[in-house]
Amino acid sequence: MKRALGAVAIVSIVALAHSPAEARHRHGAVHRHHSAHARYVNARPGAWCGWWMRQHLGVSDPRFNLARNWAGYGTNARGPAIGALVVWRHHVGIITGRTANGWVVKSGNDGRAVRERERSLHGAIAFRWPNGYAMQSGGYSLQ
Q1: In 3D, which of 114, 119, 93 has the Cα closest to residue 104?
Q2: What is the pTM assigned to this prediction?
Q3: pLDDT per residue over 21-69, tens digit each?
């Protein structure tokens, strides 16, 4: 009996070691499971301003690697304000200050670096309060 159980255990281990990492579900589709997905989700893409904002705010959803998707994040700020996200079609940043001439924005992939500088908000498609933030007088606060 012990010999038979030992043989079954060895055959099972060998079979698992040589089978591809996949699982068949009832609908018959084959899904491959491995750590490459986790690496892809967290890997910095070529256009990485959205990815940087995800890291900055702790957002895990990789759909926000695309800048314009930030237009639906958080709540509507109804215009520029310190602490609000500013979203353009191809870029996203966070407003960190105001100058006599405009707004200071911090963003990733600005000249291939994380930079904080005065920027024009011309062409912005959305201003959003990040989740967990609310408008206070002159800026934002964590709720």
Answers
A1: 119
A2: 0.66
A3: 434 444 444 444 444 445 556 789 999 999 999 999 999 999 999 999 9
| Contacts (Cβ under 8 Å, ≥6 apart) of 102 | 118, 119, 120, 121
- Confirm if 114 and 106 have CB atoms less than 8 A apart: yes
Domain boundaries, the chain: 2-138
Q: Where are the beta strands (DSSP E) in 19-138?
A: 22-24, 30-32, 75-76, 85-88, 91-98, 103-107, 115-119, 126-129, 133-136
Q: Give the C-alpha distances (Å, rounded to integers) separating 115 from 9, 25, 106, 132, 137.
A: 58, 47, 6, 24, 26
**Distance, CA of 87 to CA of 94 (rounded, Å):** 9
CB 53 within 8 A of CB 64: yes
